[in-house]
Amino acid sequence: MYYLGLDIGSSSIKAALVEISSGKSIGVVQEPKEEMGMFAQKNGWAEQKPEDWWRHICSAISHLKKQYNISRTQIKGIGISYQMHGLVLIDKAGKPLRKSIIWCDSRAVEIGNNAFDEIGNEACASQLLNSPANFTASKLKWVQDNEPDIYNQIYKFMLPGDYVAYKFSNTINTTISGLSEGIFWDFKKDTIADFLLEHFGINKSLVPDIVDTFSIQSLVDENGEEQTGIAAGTPIYYRAGDQPNNALSLNVFNPGEVAATGGTSGVVYAVTDSLSVKESSRVNNFAHVNYTKGAAARIGKLLCINGAGIQYRWLLNNLAVSSYEEMNTLASEIPVGSDGVCLIPFGNGAERMLNNKEVGTRIVNMNLNNHHKGHMCRAALEGIAFSFVYGMEILKSDGIQPSVIRAGNDNLFRSEIFANTVATLIEQEIEIYNTTGAIGAARAANLHKGDFKSFGKSIMDNDHVMTFMPFKDKQPYIEGYNNWKKELELILNK
User: Which of 269, 376, 441, 481 has the greatest number of CB atoms lying within 10 Å of its CB?
Assistant: First the structure.
């Protein structure tokens, strides 16, 4: 018997099967084979059709069942991970009223910033744990202001995962974690943020019903069975945004536990039991997947580094090299600190952790007589690693005391130079796991039983790849980081 996990990204849909008895991943498929498109009517806009997500989900499930010879009755539950901060609007018939305004759409920035000032920075920090910024609530206000005909037809707003669950079951609901990522949750009162809805003039009736993150949230209905081939009556047991779900996939639930990802962009996601916020302009704070009302808080502090893997990929595409492996070999021939060469890797737009400044990518201290592409590769890996360490310093200033760091076996963490540099500078071992969001979502379907110990054991038994230990001789790493940090601060203080 199996659980099905879905990961709804903005680039693709991934579907995974996990064996219930062992937690072992059976297989993962991706749809479409090429990246999904986005609609951008204006600069800074990004939209997708919710119906396209559903079409690709149905196709992925069909391929998964066929590839692994799985019948509809062998799938006993569903877990859903989804791209965060998106806005889906439906009418009373359940039809989307417009394309979804997705996470990377920036049209509502000014609305959120104005609300932050008008409501008050202190109130937002203590109750929302964030600025309304460009999150889902601000996007909903944008629709109200700019598309009143559409706004007046809204029956409910949803996050992307809520919409997918609805398509399976014809049941509309959401979670506290989901509402918090949209900045709809008042952590001080532990309820929907009425004061924000009132400020925006949004009717509370548009908010879906709330269900527990780990529970029987809804059941696949006959229409869901017809479209997906999943038996009617199959429960949807779990749903969460992609970053909280990535943390769950790495068994990160408790204060001090930290999840890191190093793909195109980098993310450090740390769990705390404190509602204290000092860095609300640089760090996002959401209810983690195991947040429950009336219990000790479980808050996920999310710090994003836009200029991460994209920097190393740019070098791959533009240096005379054939692979990441070749780049890593070239870098390994250069000493720690890259003989003084520093690369500032923030060339992927404004960096929230740098107070939304656009610093760009910069190469400094390059000597054209002595340095070559090996120095570039080493300086790039170190520069990206140093940006992770810089982010960890911000999280520590916001109250995080890391006890363990777990990371996916993705692009950057496959590099020993990168992982060893981070581990040595933060003086913390880094556990590497070979897992994905879809696999994590599938396993999470079992957590409605409340057995977190067995959940963690299945991840360790099935996914643990290796652990990077901090080097005892850390002085060269400290010197390299201090040189890099000095160059960054010269840029920031201009």
Answer: 441
